[in-house]
């Protein structure tokens, strides 16, 4: 379980070798690029839009 900046919750799970992220509404996205380092943090690219609950 991951807490978002707005106070929502995301759930990360492994399905095979893929990391899947599920939002509060049941939408699922696959992490396509992990650990993109930026000057103010690290981002992970997903293949779909996730919505808050």
What count of helical segments does DSSP give? 0
Order of helices and strands: EEEEE
Radius of gyration: 11 Å
Strand order of the largest sheet: 1-2-3-4-5
Structural class: mainly beta
Number of strands: 5
Q: Based on the structure, what is the oligomeric state of the protein chains?
A: single chain
The share of residues in extended strands comes to over 45%
Distance N terminus to C terminus?
Answer: 14 Å
Low-confidence stretches: none
Given the C-alpha coordinates, what overall shape results? globular
Give the helix proportion (percent range).
under 10%
Number of domains: 1
Biggest β-sheet description? 5 strands, antiparallel
Your description of this structure?
With 53 residues, the chain is mainly β. The chain has one domain. Helix content is 0%, strand content 58%. It has a 5-stranded antiparallel beta sheet with strand order 1-2-3-4-5, with no helix packed on it. The chain is globular, with a radius of gyration of 11 Å. The model has no long low-confidence stretch (mean pLDDT 94).
Sum this structure up briefly.
This protein is an all-beta fold and 53 residues long. It has strands at 2-3, 9-15, 18-22, 28-38, 41-46.
Outline the fold blueprint.
Elements: E1 2-3, E2 9-15, E3 18-22, E4 28-38, E5 41-46
List the keywords.
five-stranded antiparallel beta sheet, 53 residues
